[in-house]
Input
Amino acid sequence: MPSVSLSTAKSTTFTADAVIVGIRTDEDKGDLAASLDLLGFTGQKSQVMVFPSHGAVKAPIVAAVGLPPEPSAEDLRRAAATALRSLNNVSSVALDLHPASVEEVAAIAEGVHLGSYAFTAFKSAADDASKDAAATVDDVTILTAFARQSAATAAVERAQTVSEAVNVARDWVNTPPGDLRPAGFAEAISEHAGSNVKVTIWDDKRLEKESCGGILGVGRGSDSPPRLVKMTYRPAGTTKKTPHLALVGKGITFDSGGLSIKPGASMQTMKLDMAGAAAVAAATVAIARLGLPIQITAFACLAENMPSGTATRPGDVLRMRGGTTVEVHNTDAEGRLVLADGLTLAAEAKPDHVIDVATLTGACIVALGNNTTGVLSNDDTFSESVMTASRTTGESMWRLPITEEMRDLVQSSTIADLRQHNPKPAGGTLFAAAFLREFVGELSWAHLDIAGPSFNEGSAHGHTTVGGTGVSVRTLVQVASDLASA
Ligand code: BES
Ligand code: ZN
Ligand code: ZN
Output
């Protein structure tokens, strides 16, 4: 990630390879007016034009980026990212986007760190041209009147920690599924956690002893056995009054569908199916690095969903942790099975709230599209806290209901306590959430279905780069930070 610093300097006199200037549609274009008018720059949101400055400013290259009249923090985050990605072969950049608050300065820093992300681990070193242009930027200076305020420096540092977490989650999601199987993913989380977070890994034998029939049932078709990763963070001076948040993530390192196998086209991106676990693990580490005064207990439920002679069959009954029996009807609805064990473990830790994050249902994409996370909850107040946090971070989320119809369907198995799957696809996201709710008891719970926004199959836009997006990491950190300061 580039290093980001702050300066009160003017964009006209600042020395850098390039300067990015935010132009609001309602503002005078200043010294650049002639060039911008010639280029046909209208200033429409996130429009970028790059041109030689020819002395109009000190930097040899100017990138003008359009901003609306009253830009939100998210507008600035996107503009910073888009403008940065439009620059080739520059190593130092100044950003003149006129942030109106310390929060907006932080948003610009996030835009820089998130927008310049590229996954190059599997590109040959010699193949420089294939590396993302923005990855060549080393030094970014945000020009702002807040530069000398310690709150601004602190906000930029926080932005860096949080962006690092998003980018780690992206790395994990982007790693090919054959290179990130349950045991390897568990190790990667443990290595990333460092010393502030305690990590315990349960292998398949331990999962057996602990009666985690959901995780085992999903993982048994694979020759790479499942894992459960428990992460705990206790801030210094923890007392009984310190808030306690539990997190649970779906970590299917590859979802073939199992015996209810997916058609080839639907399987193509199914390395993304561990994005929930990646988000939860990365957010936990960020919360610890920020030293937020809140306890976190996180569970990453890792398994590979494969068809084989040892795989769970449609019709099998699994006994989950806690004793609930579940009749499996479709082995492709595996996420809810691993999450059931994770949520039971989370409830045992007696936190104040639990949030699970999962690429759970294609139905959520049908309902909300590719950019919006579905929020389902048994607690209106907590669900509103999650929504509030998402508005702070700019991550698009929308609440969906858990209806009585779905509860009745979940409880309609003729041979077990619950049925895992509703053969009718209508309301698939709601049914899945109704199933998960059976495992949280009275605990205050929110479920984030990130099936749509977890992976960008198209080209980069704003701070959303290609592939894994790291979605929900920033909102999880924000929820923790809001609970910590409540
Ligand atoms: N991992 C998928 C959900 C998914 C689909 C995530 C597309 C991201 C993009 C999940 O395990 C799944 O296969 N769900 C099924 C559920 C169905 C069998 C009830 C689905 O959505 O089709
Ligand atoms: Zn599936
Ligand atoms: Zn899945």
User: Anything to note?
Assistant: The chain has a mean pLDDT of 96. Residues 255, 257, 332, 334 surround zinc ion (ligand 2) (CB under 6 Å). The chain is about 35% helix and 20% strand.
